[in-house]
Amino acid sequence: MTNDIATETAAETGELTYVRVHDAPAQLLFECLTTPEHLTNFWGPTGTTTPVDRISVDLRPGGAFATVMVNDADGNEYRTLAHYDEIDPPNRLVWTEADSGMVTTITFADLGGGRTEVTTHQRNVPAPYLSPEAQAGFQTSLDRCDAYVARLVAGATG
Question: Which domain holds residue 128?
């Protein structure tokens, strides 16, 4: 569940930072971002799906991370291929995308009481991803993740 949302944009430096607070433990959030069976439930902006059989996670430094998002309206496909640079469960996850060189760093900070702050920092962000429309699309992916994690937590406690 999202309690706080903050977005920082530094278009001149090609960097973006998104911060969300979840009522969920860091380990669960880390697993959601590194397991195809979880990722398929939220990876990509609203209006896309990412079939579980189109997600590949080789969770080790140098291992591949690949996804294929499918546009629900027209069937167009959007591929991502990256390699993991750092894996420190459940604290930190870093990958670099092969085509653009964009580096994504996700940190998970335990706030106590079952709450976790997740910070997604991207650098070397391609210019089209810096647009307000692209950022809004990314936010919908984070919203989908929020809703999915909230359902998991509610199912575990209900």
Answer: 5-157
3-state helix, strand, coil in the chain (%, to 5): 30, 40, 30
pLDDT, tens digit (0-9, with 9 covering 90-100), for 98-124: 999 999 999 999 999 999 999 999 999
pTM of the model: 0.90
Please tell me the distance from the alpha carbon of residue 158 to that of residue 154, in angstroms, as a whole number.
6
Q: What is the CATH number of the domain that holds 38?
A: 3.30.530.20
CB 84 within 8 A of CB 97: no
For the chain, the C-alpha Rg in angstroms (whole number) is 15
Q: What is the mean pLDDT of residues 83-98?
A: 98
Count of domains for the chain:
1
List the alpha helices (DSSP H) in the chain: 26-32, 36-39, 132-157
